[in-house]
Design a protein that fits this description.
Helix content is 36%, strand content 18%. It has 451 residues and is α+β, with helices and mostly antiparallel strands. Helix 3 packs across helix 7 and helix 4 packs across helix 6.
Length: 451
């Protein structure tokens, strides 16, 4: 190759190199992706790929997910050993509230150090959250109760509560504050502690007497069951309220949180379809001289058989059969509802009302109604609820017409079933469990007895 050819060739190569350099895309900067997080319990919890398991025991994934979402699905307890120990100790003493610690994985908690760190973290969180939920709402969830046990506490986000107290120096006190602060709850807890210590102090009279181990076991069970019932109530009861305790067969009216009026009541029969349920609502009005619209089931079970046996029964009692299978009794002193009915909407169609059968209130066993609550002194109660003198109530009744009188303000009413409660002196009193509801709750409070 001549020198000129070589020079030309070199120039061409140099030009080509510059051309290529100007048109080429620069090499991209290397991207450093974060290393994928290993598939572990918290990752699976975050992704919702199944409830965590510890030692073959399934934990509540939804509850844990709500809590760990607040913490970025990172471990919680490894950096908080003091708080962990304090809260675990509170869970292991759940028996102080009449709760079985095994409901909250007590056996696993006692050997928690044998589990891998993440699994241990989930176990601690679950046990503490489940205990918090039991204190706040009761250990027996609504879907495991009878339909007639319809009371419920105000909802508390226990995941938010635990998140808020995590870094407090003494978090157990805040956790324990989820339990009811009521007079009845505190009296029952004290009675439970004394009874377990063999001290009968703080436990009053009523049913449940007797000596021996079996009698004491029954008494302890009754206290534990009624602690649970207290956990189904609002933590702050309305200062003005009507309170009907079915086993006590009494009604009390509270004003400014103090009982200002009490009276005997008739409650539902022990036949299951006639039992008075447990619920809360508000009394909105007084219906004076009310007619009684008799439900179809009562017509079929009671009215029609009686009419078949006694000619003229319907006419004597001013009862008219209705086309829809119900019946109606005209208003008047002899009406089944008496002179006044207190209207309080509820799904059970249970109301407070008067009755012409005044002799029933002198009986010890006042389990006679179809579920509604008959009040011994209904006009006095109407006077208090309507904030009118008793004379004004009588004047309103005198014309005999059916009239509805709205209350100045709706008044909360609670129909409860408490077979143990604090009496006026603070000592716990006992009443018969005539609807046989205690045993079912007691089973739910013991993990090994749950179905």
């Amino acid at each position: 190759m001549s020198r000129r050819s070589a020079m030309a060739s070199g120039a061409f190569a140099l030009a080509s190199a510059w051309t290529l350099a100007g048109c080429a895309t620069p090499a991209p900067e290397p991207v450093h992706l974060p290393k994928p997080r290993p598939e572990d319990e918290l990752t699976r919890l975050r992704d919702g790929t199944g409830d965590p398991m510890v030692a073959g025991e399934r934990l509540d994934g939804a509850l844990l997910r709500r809590f760990y979402a607040r913490r970025g699905f990172e471990p919680v307890w490894t950096t908080r050993p003091a708080q962990a120990e304090e809260l675990v100790d509170a869970v292991l003493h759940a028996g102080d509230h009449g709760l079985d610690p095994e409901l909250f994985q007590a056996s696993l908690l006692r050997r928690r150090e044998t589990f891998p760190p993440l699994r241990r973290d989930l176990l601690l969180s679950h046990a503490i959250l489940a205990y918090a939920d039991a204190l706040a709402h009761g250990a027996v969830p609504p879907d495991r109760r009878r339909d007639s046990e319809a009371l419920s506490a105000d909802r508390v986000d226990v995941a938010a509560v635990l998140d808020a107290i995590l870094d407090r120096p003494a978090p157990a006190g805040a956790l324990e504050s989820l339990a009811p602060p009521t007079r009845d709850y505190l009296a029952l807890r004290l009675a439970l502690a004394r009874a377990r210590a063999g001290d009968g102090g703080g436990v009053g009279g009523g049913v449940g007497g007797g000596r021996g181990r079996a009698a004491m076991a029954d008494r302890l069970r009754t206290i534990e069951v009624n602690l649970e019932r207290q956990r189904w109530l609002p933590r702050r009861l309305p200062a003005d309220r009507v309170w009907v305790n079915v086993p006590d067969q009494r009604l009390a009216f509270f004003r400014d949180d103090a009982p200002v009026f009490t009276t005997r009541v008739v409650v539902g029969d022990v036949v299951e379809r006639k039992q008075s349920p447990e619920f809360r609502t508000k009394i909105e009005s007084s219906l004076l001289n009310p007619p009684w619209v008799i439900p179809r089931d009562i017509v079929e079970a009671d009215i029609l058989p009686r009419a078949a046996r006694e000619p003229g029964f319907l006419a004597r009692h001013n009862i008219t059969l209705l086309p829809n299978g119900e019946a109606e009794q005209a208003p008047g002193p002899e009406s089944g509802l008496g002179l006044v009915m207190f209207e309080m909407p509820n799904r059970f169609d249970v109301y407070l009302h008067d009755t012409p059968d005044k002799a029933a209130f002198g009986r010890e066993n006042r389990r006679l109604s179809n579920g509604c609550i008959r009040v011994e002194k209904p006009l006095e109660l109407a006077s208090l609820l309507m904030e009118k003198p008793l004379g004004a109530i009588h004047e309103a009744l005198a014309p005999g017409a059916t009239t509805r009188k709205p209350l100045p303000e709706p008044v909360p009413v609670f129909v409860v079933y408490q077979t143990a409660f604090a009496g006026p002196d603070g000592a716990v009193q006992f009443r018969p469990d005539f609807y046989d509801r205690d045993a079912g709750i007691a089973r739910e409070l013991q993990r090994h007895q749950r179905a």
